[in-house]
Design a protein that fits this description.
The protein has about 160 residues and is mainly α. It has one domain (about 20-155). It contains two helices and no strands.
């Protein structure tokens, strides 16, 4: 055996190798190298496929994260929009109630004004009637008193002159 752990070639084997064409010898010698190269190529292809798989997985994760983000953003927008609608409805309701209260207060105020106006006119008319009545009575009494005074004065004058 030689250093490589192989039996030394006997003369017959050497003759057989010598009898073989050089191509065949190269094929036999290249066979273990080809096998290693073949395995290396397969490993490299597997490595490239694994890289592609990793890239595809990263891309899928990225797309999923984007989808989740968009869903979250849409949900937040929908929630925001709903709260805005609720706030606007509450504001509109408050304004409607304030308008209704204002109209009712104005109607009540106008009704009170009309009542007070009627009362004031009635009181005024009553005071005017009373003043006119008092005036008439005072004038009548004054006329009567004048008539009496003039009548007495003529009586006195007629007694004295006559």
């Amino acid at each position: 055996m030689n250093q490589k752990g192989q039996k030394p070639k006997t003369g017959g084997e050497a003759e057989q190798q010598a009898a073989k064409p050089p191509e065949e010898v190269r094929e036999q010698a290249a066979s273990p190298l080809d096998e290693v190269l073949g395995r290396a190529e397969k490993a490299y292809v597997a490595y490239q496929e694994a890289q592609k798989e990793v890239a595809r997985t990263y891309r899928e994760n990225e797309l999923q994260a984007e989808r989740i983000y968009k869903e979250s953003e849409q949900q937040a927008k929908d929630t925001c929009d709903e709260r805005i609608r609720q706030a606007l409805r509450a504001r509109d309701g408050t304004i409607d109630r304030a308008d209704k209260a204002y109209r009712q207060a104005m109607e009540q105020s106008e009704a009170t004004y009309r009542e007070n106006d009627q009362q004031a006119k009635g009181a005024c008319d009553g005071s005017i009637k009373q003043a006119l009545k008092t005036y008439k009575e005072t004038v009548e009494q004054a006329w009567k008193l004048r008539e009496e005074t003039v009548g007495q004065a003529w009586k006195i004058y007629a007694k004295e002159t006559g």
